[in-house]
Amino acid sequence: MTTMQEVIQEASRLTAGKELVVTTGVGTHQSIVARHFTFDHPRRVLITSTGHGTMGFGVPAAIGAAEAGAELVLCFNGDGSMDVDMPHLMVLAGRHLNVKVIVLDNRRFGIVHQFEGMQGLNHVATERHWKSYVHIAAGLGVPGVLCTSLPAFRRRMAEALEHRGPALLHVPVSETGVWPILKSDSRPEEMTSGRD
């Protein structure tokens, strides 16, 4: 199984030097995109809610960027954020927007799960069951593919980039924590590496 970092870095390599807008939902993937996607062109832009907890932000932000004239938009979402964003796939399909939605599925509300663990709490409703985002997207008019390995993602992402219009790539990933991280009610100098 691949990691979020590997998928994000591969998407960055496949689009290197291209003008694009990157949007994110909220969660573990949001921090990892900010750390591992390369913004190597003056017109490579990141639009994110910067940790304000607005699940469901990624796809609507991608729609706005595409409608404002962005030629290519990549939306990175976790499975939790994607559940909130589902209805917006109909807009992508109906308006045939060139938005590629990459669902990084670790089968949990990752950042919530991590904070619960850091505080010694039980994990309550943060572990999730498998669902096929490919089938859900197809039912809403967006073509989708399941990418079960990094080589599969590389191939399918390259194919998606060759065609205008929406696409969804569902990528199962291993559980990934965000390190270093700032604990609740802490000052920046109290950031933890996870080894504390």
From TrEMBL:
Residues 25-171 form the Thiamine pyrophosphate enzyme TPP-binding domain. Transmembrane segments: none annotated. Gene3D superfamilies: 3.40.50.970. One of its GO terms (biological process) is isoleucine biosynthetic process. GO terms for molecular function: acetolactate synthase activity; flavin adenine dinucleotide binding; thiamine pyrophosphate binding. GO terms for cellular component: acetolactate synthase complex. Pfam families: TPP_enzyme_C. Belongs to the TPP enzyme family. This is Putative thiamine pyrophosphate enzyme. It comes from viral metagenome. The lineage of its organism: unclassified sequences, metagenomes, organismal metagenomes.
